[in-house]
Design brief:
Helix content: 40-55%
Order of helices and strands: HHEEHEHHHEHHEEHH
Strand order of the largest sheet: 1-6-5-4-2-3
Distance between the termini: 52 Å
Number of strands: 6
Structural class: alpha/beta
Number of helices: 10
Oligomer: single chain
């Protein structure tokens, strides 16, 4: 039960800011050598609508600067969709709709753990790349949308951001996944700003997006 509650606390509802966000580890699918999104859906999984909107809006703005057409999940998934559990068949219909609207990628962010430092490292080392598709990942964690409870403050949080390719004729494939450690929660504006910044920097390093400075010089 404790594990479910921790999983149910999203990046936008538990992390009311931070003084430190740093990369813990990253994984790149070796079968996908080159990938650049043209139309992207950003998903910040949380039960807190205002924080979800702030997080997704910040990502949308930054991706737009880089020439990537971006939509927020809060504009695509209506309240009814996220207010109850969905089946694999319903997620398949969502994927079909995304294909019809010419989306080619989903960036999906959530909290996966909240522990002391010792426990955190044990759990993150076990995380790996078990979720290979967006629907599989979403189905496993959709309880986050349904659980608005707050939890005891801990010293460290582990967040996960995954990039999924929307591929015609197959499951949505994992392109890249990264984990981040967040220390000393503080203000919500700060954590959104810091988190978005480090995710974009990592995606640029992995050559998944073009940096805003690179774009302006072309």
């Amino acid at each position: 039960m404790k594990r479910y509650l921790l999983m149910g606390f999203s990046i936008l509802s538990i992390l009311l800011g931070c003084s430190s966000v740093r990369l813990h580890k990253t994984y790149r699918n070796p079968d996908i050598v080159l990938f650049h999104a043209n139309k992207l859906l950003v998903v910040g999984m949380t039960s807190e609508v205002c924080l979800r909107d702030a997080f997704e809006s910040s990502l949308q703005l930054e991706f737009s600067k880089r020439g990537i057409e971006t939509m927020k999940s809060i504009d695509l998934f209506d309240v009814d969709f996220t207010s109850s559990r969905r089946s694999r068949e319903e997620l398949a219909r969502v994927e079909e709709q995304l294909l019809e609207k010419d989306f080619d990628a989903i960036l999906f962010t959530k909290v996966v753990d909240a522990q002391t430092e010792t426990m955190l490292r044990q759990n993150t080392d076990e995380q790996g790349t078990s979720f290979k598709s967006f629907s599989e990942d979403y189905l496993a964690h959709q309880g986050i949308y349904l659980d608005p409870e707050s939890y005891e403050k801990t010293t460290k949080y582990l967040t996960e951001t995954s990039l999924y390719c929307i591929c015609v004729g197959k499951d949505i494939d994992l392109v890249w996944r990264s984990y981040y450690e967040i220390n000393n929660p503080g203000s919500s504006d700060r954590v959104v700003k810091d988190y978005v910044k480090i995710v974009l920097e990592q995606m640029q390093e992995e050559e998944l997006i073009i940096g805003a400075t690179q774009l302006s010089s072309q």
